[in-house]
Amino acid sequence: MKKFIAALDQGTTSTRCILFNHMGEIVSNDQKEHLQIYPQPGWVEHDPLEIWRNTLKVICGALSQADLVVDDLAGLGITNQRETSVVWSKSTGNPLCNAIVWQDTRTDQICRELGLEGGQDRFRSTTGLPLSTYFSGPKIKWILENIPEANTLADQGDLLFGNIDTWLIWNLTGGVNGGCHVTDVTNASRTMLMDLRTLDWDPDILRVLGIPHQMLPNIHSSSEIYGEAVSLFGGLPISGILGDQQAALFGQTCFDPGDVKNTYGTGCFLLLNSGTKPTISTHGLLTTLGYKIGTQDPVYALEGSVAIAGALIQWLRDNLGIIKTSSEVEELARRVEDNGGVYFVPAFSGLYAPYWQTDARGVIAGLTLFITKSHIARAALEATAFQTKEILEAMEKDTKINLKSLKVDGGMVKNNLLMQFQADLLNVPVIRPQITETTALGAAFAAGLAVGFWKDLNALRDYWKEGQTWTPDMSEGVRQKHFHLWKKAVKRSFNWLDE
Asked: Which of 126, 272, 286, 332 is buried most deeply by CB count within 10 Å?
């Protein structure tokens, strides 16, 4: 029996390949960053060809580090930044333009026009999603309307769309020479084009957005063999696909209704397992697919998305220069006892859940002559915890389930100051697993189930181990005061844009 599973984790800022053994332990890890492209305010792009090249490099790098070859791998699971949209020519394999990233807001006018009939929730009963620049559907519409050759290629049947999972699988399995054009239910549920109940593209929404059905990938489960890689990785089964946040939910073994996790990455993403029937939120959350294992019933989730979390720390580093590396922010923030009355609302590209205010912009409130860069650093960290609390409150209202603990993962969970403040603010324990690379682990789990590397979900539970737990240590009065002032700051970010 082959002893390893590979997980390709294609994220917003980098691409990684991690190899896991049968115990769910990391054997090797290779990673490469890619360029963030900002052509104009509100636009965020990636080069799909750079991401594809980096994919090849990191898979080779992970194998080399462990002194392994492709034949040592039982399968490959892929997890990816969701909503980031690529459109390319089927005959040449060339993208028509850079990938439009999930953070990009260029489709704001398209979303406003779509909302003239039916409002922001026009498609929510079908897709579980509000009209927002966040999702892939409006991005496809923008490309069809603004890239000259797009409609010509679409009419010829030569135009393909995919989120990054689809783009990479198409290339891995042959590209122009018969590459598989597929996605899974979790990624499809982030396009604003898929019916949550049929798990298929909705013809009425496609008609409204003017998107040809033939350019969309076939929708599959999250765990099955979709095809085999060719060339460098010939014969390797590609057997798992999960959008990054659903992968973290799966990697955290949140298999029971009411289980909830938060991933602290570029953005911040909370998912709650809501069972085998979709729950349509009335408190600003998204209804999405959690995962679907083979022919089993789909599992749904409620999601709250924060656009700017770790990206705010990068902004302190790259734009303000008050830290040289992201890891320095905790030390800087610890130089002061509290935030000094400063609250930082990082609505750089609007506010996501639970507000969905695309016209909001970033605000630093409560500044006085007393404030130093340490207070700014602390307020930046605390912003992530405040946004998390708002989403969890909305989840409790939608589900009537009271949070008992929060499982956490992602790059920011190494920050002990943030994790303690999060526990204080929520008044529940915050639990970090031993293996914090849960996004990649979830993709590995999905791939391994499909090829028999692991037997079932119960077997996977044995591989999740608690690493560290933070318990609340804040009085109720202080907690309420903090949250009251945060809410005041949030309101000051609203309606910044006149158009």
From this structure: 272
